[in-house]
Amino acid sequence: MSGHSKWSTIKRKKGAMDAKRSKIFSKMVKEITVAVKESGPEPDANPRLRLAISNAKGVNMPKDNIQRAINKADTDAANFQETTYEGYSPGGIAIYIECLTDNNNRTISNIRAVFSKYGGSIENNGSLNYLFDRKGVFTIPKGDFNTEEFELEIIDAGVEDVMYEDEVIIITTAFEDFGNVQKKLEKMGIEVENAEVSRIPNNTKPLDVEAAKKVLKMIDDFEDDDDVQNVYHNLEMTDELESEIGT
User: Fold this and answer.
1) Dist. CA 48–CA 35, nearest whole Å
2) Residues 40 and 125 in one domain
3) Could you give the angle at which helices 104-117 and 209-224 cross, rounded to 10 degrees?
4) Which H or E element spans position 140?
């Protein structure tokens, strides 16, 4: 099985290259904090916290840091809200931004500033929804298990796509099957490097390399904002562009 998971692979590779450890840990702490405030500090009874812990481990966040974040969450005075912003870069690339913020005015000001800096435009919320599908994406390190048996078993949980890439397996599911697949992987004892609900573009749009590199720099600026958790786009990652940016 193969297909649109390539988008997730490129996102993963680029993220691994560009990641600033402290920034990533800060985003993980936010997600843990929100999860604990939402449903309590016990991972067994809190799927969102369980997922946040799994993802934190996937980026090598120390166990002590994870536990400290859980312990501090109940007393954290910050009241984080989930917000989204949508817009276009020059060249018409759609950009969808997910944030966790304790100050909406600060966040929207920063988001507007980046769009303005690069000559892009911010749009009304919901106007770009039709360009992206919400999908569950699981990244699993390759193990010693039998891949054919693994595929047969996991597909019953609602998996749409399985792709083998370098040292990992990337599984894509429908949004509504995300929880079922998560539970299935846990039951199978499969280690998950990263699991997330992503917004995957229905179609991608190519730009020439120089224009595309400017769009990627714009995306980097969004991702550098402490309030931004995820940035999605429909820029086509051509072989020439991949080669240029070193993925």
Assistant:
1) 6
2) no
3) 160
4) strand 132-141
Question: Which domain CATH number covers 126?
Answer: 3.30.70.980
Tokens standing for residue 178? 């995300």
Buried b (16+ CB within 10 A) or exposed e, 167-205: ebbbbbbeeebbebbbebbeeeebebbbbbebbbbeebb
Measure the CA–CA gap between 179 and 133, rounded to whole angstroms: 17
Q: Pairing mode, if any, of strands 81-88 and 121-123? A: antiparallel
Parent domain of 42: 19-73
How many degrees, rounded to 5, is the angle at CA 186 between CA 182 and CA 191?
Answer: 100
pLDDT tier at 216, thresholds 50, 70, 90: very high
- For residues 205 and 7, give the distance between their C-alpha atoms in angstroms, rounded to a whole number: 12
3-state secondary structure of 22: helix
Which tokens sit at 8?
Answer: 């997730």
pLDDT, position 14:
47
pTM: 0.83
Whether residue 9 is predicted with pLDDT greater than 50 in this model: the reply is no
Find all residues with CB under 8 Å of 210, minimum gap 6, and list them. Answer: none
Tokens representing 165? 């890439």
pLDDT surpassing 70 at residue 10? no
Please report whether residue 6 resides in a domain: no
Which single residue is written with the structure tokens 């904090």?
33
Q: What is the DSSP letter of 235?
A: B
Domain boundary among 51, 73, 95: 73
CATH number at residue 26: 1.10.10.200
Q: Which two tokens stand for residue 16?
A: 């691994």
